[in-house]
Amino acid sequence: MTYSGDKVSFLVEKFELLPHPEGGWYKEIYRSDEIIRQQDLPGRFQSDHSFSTSIYYLLKDYDFSAFHRIRQDEIWHFYLGSPVKLYILKDGKQELIMLGDNPEAGHVFQAVVPFGCWFAAEVSIPDSFAFLGCTVSPGFDFSDFELASFEELQRDYGAYSTLIRRMTRV
Q1: Residue 98's Cα: distance from chain center in Å?
Q2: FRET label pair with 90: which of 66, 100, 113, 121, CA 20 to 30 Å apart?
Q3: Which residues pair with 97 in a beta bridge?
Q4: Distance between CA 72 and CA 89 in Å, rounded?
């Protein structure tokens, strides 16, 4: 799909998307009313959390989702646009998942990023965009979010320094 400023503007306006600290645009569309108490969650959580949350997420070709990690598993859903390269750093290795609408080309419609893994994303086609969704359980809270620095990732994932430099903001 070719980038259309009108299509991106339409999606940003229609879904009231806001700039995300990791890059791209987002809007929370679901937050469970039910709560899991901190004492019932694994020790990595510092507060009560909703059962689940979900967002819309939009990436444009010149932007990227910078390497970050959260304390929960995150499920990415592909909806519309360019296939997306989802990079995951885990146990000293890098994994690439292609989110998209062409299973014959190896794309998947959904992918899970395990909690605690560093991950980043970008559209795979120049002059394009991707419209996605992300579901997190227990529900997302910005206190669970950590943006990576180049130096931090370089220590454990130095073999991927070109990718890390391109996909970090600090």
Answers
A1: 13
A2: 100
A3: 86
A4: 15
